[in-house]
Amino acid sequence: MSDTNVERTGRLDTATLSDALDRCGINGQCYHIKPSSPDFRMAGRAWTLRYGPAGKPAGTVGDYIDDVPDDCIIVLDNGGRDDATVWGDILTEVAHRRGLAGTLIDGVNRDVALCRELGYPVYSLGNYMRTGKDRVQVEATQVPVNIGGVRVAPGDLVRGDADGVVVIPQEHEARVLDMGEAIESAENAIRSAVRLGMSLREARELHRYHHLQTRVES
């Protein structure tokens, strides 16, 4: 089934959506999260998982993937840990084969070469080779999680590109997307006006550029 708002999200870049989130007074910019390749792009709905330190005996770290619906973005909250990975080559291969939209991690991943080779988008705090097995375990799935200081709930819209990742809460997505499309239209109009000979100052004033990121009340 087509998801119109996922399609709309994928047509807007993260900078535009960041401005739209600011206008709506929503914190949705995932701090320090970056793509494993600058070529990666992703848009989809969040399927969430939260990790915690491993107990004894240690719980599982990765058998959840068979339960993730197609086209979702897997969102893994490992509490920002950078000493143990929660994503690697087997998960990348399975996710790519399944047609999942991407992976977003508050933590680190490994086996970067394969995700680049396959073109499967992985966004995280960085990469490191040390396994999370016997160091972390799954605590809960499909619950609200924290990614780069942003609350992500199951079903929220997630957009990633070369600049990073933004998250749009499901309950506000129509307003944020409307705002994002209006911002993109205004910025395109400014570019067109400058190309036709108008000064940047005049074009920005005409299209109210300095108000595009100003917060507006709902």
Structure description:
The chain is α/β, with parallel strands linked by helices and 218 residues long. It has 2 domains: 1-26 and 169-218, no CATH class; 30-167, Glucose Oxidase, domain 1. Helices cover 29% and strands 28% of the residues.
Helix content: 25-40%
Under the CATH scheme, which class of the largest domain? Alpha Beta
Largest sheet: 9 strands, mixed
CATH topology descriptor of the largest domain: Glucose Oxidase, domain 1
Calculate Rg over CA atoms: 19 Å
> Looking at the chains present, what oligomeric state does this protein adopt?
single chain
The CATH architecture of the largest domain can be named as 3-Layer(bba) Sandwich
Number of strands: 11
Shape by Cα distribution: elongated
* Global mean pLDDT: 93
Could you name the CATH homologous superfamily of the largest domain?
Ribonuclease E inhibitor RraA/RraA-like
Low-confidence stretches: none
How many individual domains? 2
What's the tally of helices? 6
Query: Could you spell the SSE succession in H and E letters?
Result: HHEEEHEHEEEEEEEHH
